[in-house]
Design brief:
single chain, 332 residues, alpha+beta, six-stranded antiparallel beta sheet, three-stranded antiparallel beta sheet, 8 helices, 23% strand, elongated
């Protein structure tokens, strides 16, 4: 049995969930009613499982991090002149203690302050990847990602060299967070082992993003974790993010589409009428000859738009120019 104890905030959230949605059937036992409401079998339920963010919110964060991943890959290509790409392979919510278990213990760990967010972010970068970056910045091939160097700690000098790339990496990560709230990242400290960090309580729910760099010669992982407590005041910003998928919402882009459509130039013509000539009459036509048409003086003429009849009107004049007054709108 799990010996973890729910906090008061978690108990309140659980009671609110039951009040809003009722008691889940899988919490009920053999015909005995829970609170006198229902009956059913009791099964094991992990009440500590994080569910602070909705699936829609997670999906928006995934799209944001995909954008960030593209910029991180381009950063390495541009700054280090290497063939590299970056992908966001996972965005999850979990307990911080569970996240720590997933991270390479020897990974370089950065504690990053993100004012005005109340709690810092923790960023880890695979030691092999960071050593390869250092080697490349110093003019090497970046091949330091192989061999026993993957497991050794970086020196202060190597961290200083790596900052030439790590600082812009943090700026791009902060750009993703700025979809919620504008932040300015600042490295508060560096650690050689993620388990040494006490910046986030182990039972805190966190939002974890996992990036993977691939290419030659640089390979490795980058992870960033953000405490839910720090993000919570700003989560409403996800609803208005430019990364919200609006394609399924009726009329979501109506105003924007109309704005562009109204600027489109269309060809509008006026057909005065039609007449009939025999072939011999047509061949005999010359300057000064008159072709009678079926339209009567003052009668309606067709007004086609891009060759398709859309209106009927009366020919007149406005100033020194001919004009047409629309009298009828044709149905499709």
């Amino acid at each position: 049995m799990n010996n973890e104890v729910l906090s008061n905030a978690e108990i309140d959230a659980l009671l609110e969930l039951f009040a809003a949605e009722g008691v889940p059937e899988d919490l009920l036992e053999d015909g005995r009613s829970l609170g006198g409401l229902h009956g059913g079998a009791i099964t094991s339920v992990d009440l500590l499982k994080p569910n602070r963010l909705s699936r829609d919110q997670i999906a928006i964060v995934e799209r944001i991090q995909e954008m960030v991943a593209g910029k991180l890959g381009a950063l390495l290509v541009d700054r280090l002149r290497v063939d590299a790409s970056c992908d966001c392979v996972a965005v999850e919510q979990m307990r911080y203690a569970n996240w720590v278990q997933q991270v390479e213990k020897s990974a370089a760990t950065y504690i990053v302050d993100l004012p005005p967010v109340s709690m810092p972010a923790i960023v880890t970068i695979s030691t092999g990847l960071l050593l390869g970056i250092v080697d490349r910045v110093l003019g090497g091939s970046g091949q330091a990602t192989v061999g026993d160097d993957k497991r050794r700690e970086l020196s202060d000098a190597e961290y200083a060299v790596a900052d030439a790339i790590v600082v812009p990496i943090l700026d791009y990560l902060a750009e993703g967070i700025s979809e919620l709230v504008e932040v300015k990242p600042r490295i508060a400290s560096r650690l050689s082992n993620v388990t040494l960090s006490q910046a986030i309580p182990f039972q805190e729910v966190v939002l974890a993003s996992h990036f993977q760099f691939s290419g030659q010669p640089l390979l490795g992982d980058l992870r960033i974790v953000l405490a839910y407590t720090g993000l919570e005041p700003y989560l409403d910003g996800l609803a208005t993010s430019r990364f919200v998928a609006r394609s399924g919402q009726v009329g979501a882009f109506r105003d924007r589409v109309l704005e562009h459509v109204r600027r489109v130039d269309l060809e509008v013509g006026v057909e005065l009428g039609h007449g009939h000539l025999r072939l011999g009459e047509l061949m005999a036509l010359g300057v000064g000859d008159i072709i009678p048409i079926e339209t009567k003086i003052g009668g309606l003429v067709e007004v086609p738009v891009e060759g398709v009849p859309k209106f009927r009107g009366v020919v007149g004049s406005r100033g020194p120019r001919y004009a047409v007054r629309i009298e009828e709108v044709l149905q499709d």
